[in-house]
Amino acid sequence: MLEFTVNFLAATMRTATPLLIAALGLVFSERSGIVNIGTEGIMLSGALLGCIGSLMFESSLVGAVFAMAGGALLGLLFAFFTVTLRSSQVVVGFSLNIFAAGLTVTLNRLILNGVRVTSYPSYAIPGLSQIPVAGPALFNWPLLVYFALLAVPLSWFVLYKTNIGLKIRAVGEHPKACDTVGINVFKMRYGAIVFSGIMSGLAGSFISMGQLSMFVENMVAGGGFMALAVVVFGNYSPGTVLVASLLFGASDALKFRLLMTPVGIGFSQFMNMLPYVITIVALCFFAKRSNKPACSAVPYRKD
Amino acid sequence: MAEYVLQMKNITKTFGPVVANKDVNLYVEKGEIHALLGENGAGKSTLMNCLYGMFDSYEGDVYFDGELVNIVDSRHAIALGIGMVHQHFMLIPVLSVIENVVLGLKENKEVLDLKAAAKEFTELGKKYNMEIDPWLKVEQLSVGQQQRLEILKALYRKAKLLILDEPTAVLTPGEIDSLFDMMRQLTDEGHTVIFISHKLNEIMKICDRCTVLRLGEVAATVDIAEVKDRQQLASLMVGREVELETTTKPVELRDKRLEVENLCVDNDRGLPAVKNMTFDLYGGEILGICGVDGNGQSEMVQCITGLREATSGKIVINGTDTAGLNPGQILGLKVSHIPEDRHKYGMVGPMTLDENLILVSYKQEKYSSRGFLRWKWIAEQSESIIKSFGVKTPGIKELAKNLSGGNQQKLVVGRELERTPDLLIAVHPSRGLDIGATKYIQQQIVEQRDMGTAVLMVSTELDELIELSDRILVVYDGEIMGIVERKNASREVLGPLMAGVRD
Fold first, then answer.
1. Does A164 contact B at CB distance below 8 Å?
2. A166 vs B55, B103, B270: nearest CB
3. Which residue from B75, B95, B109 is facing A182, i.e. has the nearest CB?
4. Residues 6+ positions from B341 with CB-CB distance below 8 Å
């Protein structure tokens, strides 16, 4: 029983980490008034680019840099279409997903083809990792897991206590008002989107190099959409986003455990649905207290 | 020789083919309250937005404090010491007061020190007698408080020249008085105020000088002390003699047309907007609904016209209980509705005039048979409405959105009155219209009353209500504060009621 619990918790953390990293980035872009459905595609590109970088330089660090650079570039592309050209965020986001799906398959077959690459090394926490049974499973993680957890209070601080955080929150609520006090709405939104792209790319690289050590076609499998749901369920705030990603991670982990039992196959589909059901129910109850920005997905025009 | 804080010389601003400002000269002396008067669309806001850097470019020269400046973003305007309180407040409802105050300040450190800012802000508020709790969220403030916050926000940014765009439109008479007190205090301290308005009484009362804009050009700049009466200002603004008063004669009351009993209605957020209202309305009278915007008037009208459901209570129109009826069925009870927002509810912009004119009656046999519209008959009808209501247009096939605001409203009014209603509901019938169109529409409403129609008129313009209404019902926070007869109606009586003060 103890072993099952420990394994379950470890699996939860492993599935929750990429969700958390992507969702923390999304908190900033969502708050600035952008809904980036293309997150799925950016994560997929990050997963692929991470592996390519890692393969070429035999270093997972270079892989991470590749993944983040790719995320930044795709974010820039998304920002150009949605902020500068004021195209529909839904249409551009979806195009990005389709584009990334095709591009990653092509590059994968040209370069990787299932080859194993250097994955993110694990670092044990001295002391805690010595605990029998639980220690090695729960206190021995790749750096990105620690980074994701540290990023939660950091994001909260930036969002609520700093000048730039105030500007990001304001831009999503009432861009015109920001313009009248001399804030460059376009610059803020570009920044938030690119930052979120970097985080999504990094999150993608964790899927290919933290959970596995290879790229598999379409391996993100809805993770980007889940990250978007995590942000909504987490009410656009870092602390609650952490809770939401653990919940989504747990239900995902439970699903795989159930698949191994005889009754589990039908039930696992139910589990698949559960986080979304919880999100919808929670939204019904908390809709009035929502932090959703007033000008979410509305392009700004200065005139 | 007076010292000018601001000189705008030969300002021209065009939007595509539309010339919003043409060769405008505006000279503002240091320490004065300078009125910018003009009808809607005369170019007042455009001129001030040029000055505040809301546009990328304009033609002409702007001198501020004697120096030639080229202001193309608001950051620059703020740095020079120009502050603007926009007609639609530029505040963020979900943020706290102090967050709104410091938002975008270039002196901000990367990690904000809101406590220090709050202290400074509170002191500033004390100085001008406008204390606001810095930790409240803006959405918790009343409209009057939000305006004070906007003014303090500008002063916090060390504004020397303050532009107030139609500041009194959202205030009760009492709040207007305290705004005027503060404006005087500011000018005594050496600040300068530009006061944008189309309300002649207020300009006569508070301003030193006045620049009148007409169709984008300066009609005149006058010393208020030398102006004989508001009639003179009105003529300058319109460009011809205008009759300001609308007269009404007594008429006999007919039967009861509208009965509202214990009506309760929720707003969009699910909060009570109309609380237990009871009143009735007879043929041959105008019942004015008076109150600052957002005190339940919209929800009440939407409920009477079937656009919104009541949470409890009863509405009877012409003897029929309207519970469960849809808007079309309610209009069928000989009800006409001039909605508050003609663009949103009154007409369909991208459709032609004749199409707009049959929006309500297209189902009637005269207009269609066996599912086909009878365009010939419709064209004749439309021509006749357009002629009798004086809608200026190249033809009935013009798109409604291409008409001026006044002509659009005449179109809506024409369509609604042509149906010879028993009950006419007119919401802000003259909002955004020039004096000529306003007078015309007011006369049409009075004529309806004289013919025995019951009229429910919602307005925020006190003068309009006092002039036209037989009775005035004052609402505050969704409740009826009182119903005042015509002979007792005055600003002094209505003012406190509008602010929620009984007796």
1. yes
2. B103
3. B75
4. none
**Within 10 A of B59 (CB to CB), how many other CB atoms are there?**
13
Which amino acid type is present at position A14?
R
Please tell me the number of Cα atoms within 13 Å of A195 on its side-chain side.
Answer: 21
B112/A167 touch (CB, cutoff 8 Å), yes or no: no
Q: What is the DSSP string of A125-146?
A: PTTGGGSTTHHHHHSEEEHHHH
Q: Are B299 and B458 in contact (CB under 8 A)?
A: no
Domain spans of chain A?
A: 2-117+129-289
Chain A residues close to B84, C-beta within 8 Å: 180
**Domain end position, chosen among B238, B269, B303:** B238
Which residues of chain B make contact with A292, given a CB cutoff of 8 A?
none
At residue B298, φ and ψ (nearest 5 deg) are: -60, -45
Torsion B99-B105-B111-B114 (CA) sign: negative
Same domain? For B163 and B224 the reply is: yes
DSSP track, B56-107: S--EEEEEETTEEE---SHHHHHHHTEEEE-SS----TTSBHHHHHHTT-TT
Residue B112 has its nearest CB partner, among A162, A179, A181, at A162
| Dihedral sign from CA coordinates of A94, A99, A101, A102 | positive
Reported CATH class of domain A2-117+129-289: mainly alpha
Residue B348 has what DSSP assignment? -
Residues B230, B233, B234, B237: what is their CA dihedral angle, to the nearest 10 degrees?
-160
Per-residue pLDDT tens digits for A44-98 = 999 999 999 999 999 999 999 999 999 999 999 999 999 999 999 999 999 999 9
Q: 3-class DSSP state for residue A162? A: strand
- Residue B349's SS3 state is coil
CATH number assigned to the domain comprising residue B449 = 3.40.50.300
- Distance between CA atoms of A81 and A175, rounded to whole angstroms? 18
Three-state secondary structure of B271-285: CEEEEEEEEEEECCC
The residues on B that touch A, with CB distances below 8 Å, are 52, 54-56, 73-76, 78, 84, 86, 90-95, 99, 102-106, 108-112, 269-270
CB A223 within 8 A of CB A22: yes
Q: Report CB contact under 8 Å: A182, B74.
A: yes
User: Are residues B212 and B315 located together in one domain of the fold?
Assistant: no
User: What ipTM is given for this predicted complex?
Assistant: 0.88
Strands across the sheet with B209-214, in order? Answer: B82-85, B161-165, B192-197, B33-37, B209-214, B217-223
Encode pLDDT of A95-143 as tens digits.
999 999 999 999 999 999 889 999 999 998 888 888 877 787 788 899 9
The residue range of the domain holding B381 is: 345-417
Determine, yes or no, domain membership for B339: no
Burial of B63 (0-12, 13-18, 19+ CB in 10 A): middle
Report residue B162 as tokens.
């303050």
In eight-state DSSP terms, residue B387 is H
**On the CB side of A12, how many CA atoms lie within 13 Å of its CA?**
17
CB nearest to B95's CB, from A163, A170, A302: A170
- Whether the Cβ atoms of residue B171 and residue B182 lie closer than 8 Å to each other: no
pLDDT in tens, B168-227: 877 888 888 889 999 999 999 999 999 998 888 889 999 999 999 988 899 889 998 888
In a shared domain, residues B133 and B13: yes
Closest-CA residue of A relative to B154 is: A181
Q: Which of B205, B238, B271 is the endpoint of a domain?
A: B238
On the question of pLDDT at A267 being above 80, the answer is no
